[in-house]
Amino acid sequence: MSFTRLHPLLAAALTAALTAAVILVGSAVLRPAAGPSPSGAGPDSSARNLGRVEYGVCRGPDPSCYHDWGNFDPATDGYRVLVYSRTAGPRHAHLGPVLAAGLNPPLTAANAAQSGLVELGADNGFAVDWTEDVTQLNSPARLFRYNAVIFMSTTRDALDDPAQTALRQYIRGGGGFVGIHNAFGTEYNWEWYEGLLGGTNYYDHGRNQPGTVVTTSRRDASTAGLPGRWDFTDEWYNLVPFPTGVRILATVDEATLPDGATGGSGHPGHGRNHPVSWCQYYDGGRSWVTTLGHEVAAWNTDGTYFKAHVLGGIESAMGRKPFCR
Q1: I want to staple 183 with a disulfide (CB 3.0 to 4.6 A). Which of 33, 151, 269, 286 is the partner?
Q2: Where does the record place the ThuA-like domain (predicted)?
């Protein structure tokens, strides 16, 4: 549009207005939408918005956000996952002692979560490698050996720049991500990773206490065999922002928490919709996450609903079973 025939002051005003409008529209598309308040679910807490463009990527329960680029050949290579449990801050008891460098260092009985995941793979026909060595994640080619990468209670800045780049390229190439428990307390200042978690981060939690998990979707591979309600003990993470554009698979009934959901930093909980597990396609890949898994006993006990839940999440994230149904 030309403003050459308009009064110079009017032309300048119109030009400025159009420029501001373009910037505003661009911001609305590329920046993450503000989620609902922590105390409520809000309109975006489930799968109502398919194929959202947030964090500069396509994300949501819509399979059109997935990149099926032929980077995996399970018929030839089988299924294999990588468990990454590096901590750069507080370390959960279920991780046990810090692991030695390299791939598949010796595990002890105290490395309960890592050992539990290795056993889960052995019992269900997929291979499991494990590491806390960030150099094992420093190239996409290395990561493409795995159908899914599992962040098992990683803490704070668990990745360096090469590993961040490799993880992003891996996900863009159709890789699977599984985030368990303190994967939510990781890479706080990396917006892309926040989006991978569902547009959310860990904020705080109340006392470790028993509660009742509510299975909100029975169609997903991670929930198909679960009862509608099941008892579990955990820290019950409170989140900020509230997860958006995801399919929520399970919540905790806050009314069953003896000490309530209020966290140590004052977060009031999430009321009637307190999510604990959800899934989404993200930037070409698959992401299945759960805040559960705090107690050592959760990893040492065979046949629990929790381990069945995690198994289904892993199998769907790596493409062995239908994802995010």
Answers
A1: 151
A2: 80-315
C-alpha to C-alpha distance for 218 and 94, rounded to whole angstroms: 28
Give, in degrees to the nearest 5, the angle at Cα 181 between 114 and 150: 50
Please report, in tens digits, the pLDDT of each residue of the chain (325 residues total). Answer: 444 444 544 444 444 444 444 333 333 333 333 333 333 333 334 444 444 546 889 999 999 999 999 999 999 999 999 999 999 989 999 999 999 999 999 999 999 999 999 999 999 999 999 999 999 999 999 999 999 999 999 999 999 999 999 999 999 999 999 999 999 999 999 999 999 999 999 999 999 999 999 999 889 999 999 999 999 999 999 999 999 999 999 999 999 999 999 999 999 999 999 999 999 999 999 999 999 999 999 999 877 999 999 999 999 999 999 999 9
Q: Are 146 and 79 in contact (CB under 8 A)?
A: no
In angstroms, the CA 151 to CA 186 distance is: 9
Q: What is the homologous superfamily of the domain 51-89+111-317 according to CATH?
A: Class I glutamine amidotransferase (GATase) domain (3.40.50.880)
How far apart, in Å, do the first and last CA atoms of the chain sit?
47
E-only strand ranges, the chain: 52-54, 57-60, 80-84, 127-131, 148-152, 176-180, 202-205, 209-215, 229-234, 237-239, 247-253, 275-282, 285-290
Q: Provide the residue type at 253 as one letter.
A: D
E strands present in 109-255: 127-131, 148-152, 176-180, 202-205, 209-215, 229-234, 237-239, 247-253
- Give the SS3 label for residue 316: helix
C-alpha neighbours within 13 Å on the C-beta side of residue 125? 6
Please state, in angstroms and rounded to a whole number, the distance separating the CA atoms of residues 11 and 269: 52
User: Which pTM was predicted?
Assistant: 0.85
- Asked if residue 300 lies in contact with residue 116, where contact means CB atoms within 8 angstroms, the answer is yes
